[in-house]
Amino acid sequence: MTKDNSDVWGISRVWNASLVDKEDRKLEPRDYLWASELGKAPVDLYLKLKGVEPTNLPNDRSKRKFEAGNIFEWIVGLILIRAGILQESQKWTKYQYPGLLAVTGRADYIAGGKPDYQKAKEELKELLLPDVFMRAGDSIISYFAKNFPDGLKEMPFEVKSVSSFMFEAMLASGKPLVNHEKQLYHYIKSGHYDMGVLVYICRDDLRMEEFVIKDEPAIEKKYRDDIATITDYYNRDEQPPLEKPIVWDENLQKFAKNFNVGYSMYLTKLYGFKDQAEFDDKYTSIVEGFNRVLTRIKDGKDMTENNKEKIGYMIELGFDIEEIKKQLIKK
Questions:
Q1: Cα Rg, the chain, nearest whole Å
Q2: Do 128 and 267 belong together in one domain?
Q3: Phi, psi at 177, each rounded to 5°
Q4: Residues 209 and 283 in one domain
Q5: What is the pLDDT of residues 112-138, one digit of tens each?
Q6: Residue 5: its pLDDT value, please?
């Protein structure tokens, strides 16, 4: 006799479905950029601005990663609130250089000011957060009270969650992801702040790292150049060239797959790959082979025939091998 399991219940199925049960936004032609799009491939931005229907929408895993990012952002926001320094969340901003496309976006948080630190500690206890976040929040408030008794400079805070692989890569390079840097700079520029903080949380072990981004000419140039490039293609109604599948990462001194290709909403339309997995299947081993050659170069070893073939392929893809060798020696 089969036992009746009608009284067995759980929440996983409903939870998993709710994370991906979100209607994809239909693209419409527009004449402005989102701050979060800065640093992305010009060809993708051009097609999005023209309202071209994507061939590769985010899959369920990508949607869940996005929602995980929202959860980490929310937790940081709660701590900022109870620390008494959250001034505004999701602040809408817009900036436009003469003759260029406007850029709009919503800053995660604007934080700073002069809080009542004792009150903040008492209110933190009411949040019923897990102990790890309570300890972190209490420590942050104590740190502010000791080091900034007269209050904190007001500035935008942008919160990002990343994998341990990406987190370690940023620690190694000492630099944030350039697209995130440009996004935060937009909030600095449009809000007339002199600096902002880019906060990264590792999804795998909850480590946190932050980068201070200042209103400096070098950063503004990168921000403005991005806008000028896509504006030029947009005004001429000309599709930008495709991205290279493999790129040279100067910060990490190694070759890498181009995420602007792998994560493209137009991966099939532009590059002919069914999905990201198919793109990875083709280029992961090639990148690994290229980097093994780099290791032999750094170690001063002789090049095998196979190494020479790979170097020939690097040159075929447009890489300046002599310049890369100079960087490796300098490093």
A1: 23
A2: no
A3: -65, 135
A4: no
A5: 988 777 777 777 666 666 777 778 778
A6: 64
Per-residue pLDDT of 201-213, as tens digits, reads 999 888 999 999 9
Give the end of a domain, one of 202, 235, 268: 235
Residue 268: both structure tokens together: 């099939």
6 within domain boundaries:
no
Specify the 3-state DSSP secondary structure of 211: strand
Output the six-digit token pair for 103: 């850029």
What gap in Å lies between CA 287 and CA 141, rounded to an integer? 45
Asked whether residue 79 is assigned to any structural domain, the reply reads yes
Strands (E) in the chain, as ranges, are 32-34, 86-95, 102-113, 152-162, 195-202, 208-214, 246-249, 254-257
pTM of the model: 0.87
Nearest to 287 by CA among 244, 331, 243, 242: 244
The residue segments making up the domain with residue 88 are: 26-235
Q: Assess contact for 174 and 183: CB atoms under 8 A.
A: no
- How many domains are contained in the chain? 2
The residues, ordered by sequence, that sit 6+ positions from 53 with a Cβ below 8 Å of its Cβ are 27
203: exposed, middle or buried (C-beta count within 10 Å: 0-12, 13-18, 19+)?
middle
Q: Tell whether 171 and 225 lie within a shared domain.
A: yes
Task: Tell me how many degrees the CA angle 274-277-283 measures, rounded to the nearest 5.
Answer: 100
